[in-house]
Design goal:
9% strand; six-stranded mixed β-sheet; four-stranded parallel β-sheet; elongated; alpha/beta; 25 helices
Length: 700
């Protein structure tokens, strides 16, 4: 029998289950109301309490950008509207200033396949005048077109918008008719006035000679100032003569009128001389020449590079081609001198990703190789004491397993789809839902990539943000500016990573416009051994891109031979949404290590619905890796689309000179007009996301 309790000689009645429940509910209500009414935040803040300080209070509201995103009961909203030029192939993106606030793009785009990219910055225009009315033979025009193409390529890589002007822009200037009425001007002054008229027709910006090239780091203060495009005064620079002017349209127009009103202009050989001889000729501000600019003027070439100068005097076409080759080699040499620590071809999860990163490794070899030059032991005009390139002492190429943000180290990354890296990392020909859910590690690629920046316990959210900064940030990131974060192991004191790294989607071929990214024509892959040498792979200079022994054991020959077939199958599944998927080409470095039988076995893969479902499952299980892959692919696609659009637009002007097609068309006398007569309208002339798997697998 249960024990009977007695208080003051009277038995205590037993409490039933119903009574105990009511008692507990009453105590709970009492506790809740006590907390609400007695919290320090509810006490009136009298002056005495304010003076005491150290007052704690509960915030009235909790605001976080994540609250509305994570509400499962909110009504569905339309995605952001489609922007102009936001699609290229299978890559779709949305540009927004808040691209780093949300680690996952779908939180803003409401579309799993739409990447959130930074807003595309306006490029400061830099103008160059080319008189396409001069009669020349085809070899001379082609040689000058190649030189102008090198000029446009170098300035584009530095973040500018190079534009070649012609007489059409000068004729479009309202002052052109008045200038034509002037008599007694020297031919040199007439040509220079046409140059200034063309610039005045376009508006603000930079006016440069086609022999002025940027040769310095992207974050050079002078280049940053010019790239900003804010010029308070019309400025020219010492030792550059007429090589570079910066200013506004109003000041350019005032300079032209000063030349027109100055009676002493008839004796001048150029606009600068005519302006300085006038009474009110104080239009120019004279600054020191930027050390990051190289001017290959006629006098400089004859004095510093006499071999090229003699070649130009002997044959204009052959000499101009020699000068173009010399300038290209100096641009490449300048790039190599910036990255003194060499090139890093990152290899996360290194045991079975040798085949995956081989195209990036071959690109690194081309960058480390010395370019062809008529004068290989020479230096640029702005760096006379440089160290010439020497193939016997090439740039260092390393294959670390993690990313290192250093200004003196150039990084080439290969970003695989999570399905590709899951297949290669575990050497599995077929995946399954059970294996993905129970055995597959989550976001293994980005965790390995950022292992040198964060502790192992750090989640994937800061890792993903740091990766996006490395891909697309052209300025110092907030995390890098304030030094080491909590849980971070490095990355302080470096500039933005967009111009010291390149990230290539693993399943797509290497872009064909890499020359525009670097600013110079890349040399062919270096050959360190005779083609007939049977040893082959061991004597090609740098060996197959194996990793450091500290990152794990090296793959066996059988594993290396198995990787291409696995990659081809994964590539076909990843790109199956495309209308035509380009199957991978065996990189040159691995041709000798893969048997012919293995290469012949790589046939087009038939993709089934089950394969696509598994791909979606892998994407849902590796949200950070998927986001990194889509972000890198979209960023590279947008860069190529921006350049192609600009290239197609510029090909319509100045007779197409300086374009890759190099189509210099002569004027058709009976045709009623040609590209040469086309003028730009300058300032003075103006009057979806179908995903099967959801975020329930996400752990962060």
């Amino acid at each position: 029998m249960p024990k009977q309790y007695v208080v003051c000689g009277r038995p205590v009645p037993r409490l039933g289950t119903r009574h105990i429940s009511l008692l507990l509910v009453g105590l709970a209500l009492f506790a809740v109301f006590s907390l609400l009414w007695t919290l320090p935040g509810a006490i009136p803040a009298t002056p005495s309490l304010r003076a005491a300080g150290n007052r704690f209070s509960v915030p009235k509201s909790f605001k976080s950008p994540w609250m509305n995103r994570l509400n499962p009961f909110k009504q569905p909203a339309h995605p952001p509207r489609v922007q102009k030029g936001d699609t290229d192939g299978d890559s779709v993106w949305y540009a927004n200033w808040n691209w780093l606030l949300m680690p996952f793009s779908s939180s803003v785009t409401l579309d799993e396949n739409r990447a959130l990219l930074p807003v595309l910055k306006d490029r400061t225009p830099i103008y160059c005048y080319y008189d396409n009315t001069i009669e020349q033979d085809d070899p001379n025009r082609d040689a000058e077109s190649d030189l102008l193409l090198a000029w446009r390529r170098a300035w584009w890589a530095q973040g500018f918008r190079p534009i070649i002007l012609s007489s059409a822009e000068a004729i479009n200037n309202p002052l052109y008719e008045e200038v034509q009425k002037l008599e007694g001007l020297t031919p040199a002054l007439k040509t220079d006035l046409m140059r200034w008229l063309a610039w005045g027709n376009m508006g603000d910006g930079l006016l440069a000679h086609h022999l002025l090239f940027p040769m310095g780091p992207h974050d050079d203060p002078s280049l940053t100032y010019l790239r900003r495009g804010e010029f308070p005064r019309l400025t020219r620079f010492k030792d550059l003569d007429d090589g570079l002017f910066v200013g506004t349209m109003g000041e350019v127009t005032a300079v032209i009128r000063t030349v027109m009103d100055n009676p002493e202009s008839k004796k001048a050989e150029g606009v600068v001389e005519a302006v300085e001889s006038a009474k009110d000729g104080g239009w120019f501000t004279l600054d020191d020449a930027p050390k990051s600019l190289a001017y290959y003027s006629k006098s400089k070439v004859e004095a510093t590079y006499p071999k090229v100068g003699r070649a130009i005097a002997a044959s204009h076409a052959a000499g101009t081609r020699s000068l173009t080759q010399l300038i290209n080699s100096h641009l490449h040499l300048t790039w190599q001198s910036i990255f003194t620590n060499g090139i890093s071809v990152v290899k996360p999860l290194p045991h079975h990703t040798t085949y995956l990163i081989t195209p990036a490794y071959e690109l690194a070899q081309r960058l480390a190789h010395c370019p062809e030059s008529p004068l290989p032991d020479t230096c640029p005009p702005n760096r006379p004491n440089c160290r010439p390139c020497d193939d016997s002492k090439p740039m260092k190429i390393s294959t670390p397993s993690s990313y290192s943000p250093a200004n003196t180290l150039y990084t080439i990354g290969t970003v695989p789809h999570p399905y590709t890296i899951s297949t290669l990392n575990h050497l599995k020909t077929q995946l399954s839902i059970a294996w993905i859910r129970r055995e597959s590690p989550r976001d293994a690629w980005i965790t390995s990539l950022t292992s040198s920046l964060f502790e192992d316990s750090m989640s994937t959210t800061p890792r993903l943000i740091r990766f996006k900064e490395a891909v697309a940030s052209d300025e110092t990131s907030p995390a890098e500016a304030k030094g080491k974060e909590k849980g971070s192991k490095g990355g302080d004191g470096v500039s933005g990573g967009a111009y010291r790294s390149m990230w290539l989607p693993a399943e797509q071929p290497i872009p064909e416009d890499l020359d525009w990214h670097f600013g110079f024509v890349l040399p062919d892959r270096a050959s360190y051994a005779d083609d007939g040498n049977a040893a082959g792979i061991q004597q090609l200079g740098p060996p197959i891109p194996l990793h450091s022994p500290q990152d794990g054991p090296h793959p066996t020959e059988s594993d290396l031979a198995f990787e291409p077939a696995l990659f081809s199958r994964a590539q076909a599944i990843v790109l199956s949404s495309s209308s035509s998927s380009s199957h991978s080409r065996i990189p040159d470095l691995l041709k000798s290590s893969i048997s012919k039988e293995s290469a012949q076995k790589q046939q087009p893969v038939a993709v089934t619905k089950e394969d696509l479902a598994l791909r979606d499952a892998v994407e849902a299980w590796n949200l950070a890796d998927t986001e990194a892959w889509r972000f890198a692919r979209a960023y590279l696609a947008r860069s190529s689309l921006e350049r192609r659009t600009w290239e197609d637009d510029e090909a319509r002007y100045a007779g197409g000179v300086g374009t890759e097609k190099a189509a210099i068309r002569t004027s058709d006398k009976g045709g009623g007009g040609s590209n040469d007569d086309r003028a730009r309208k300058g300032s003075a002339a103006k009057g979806k996301g179908g995903r099967v798997w959801d975020r329930w697998m996400d752990r962060d």
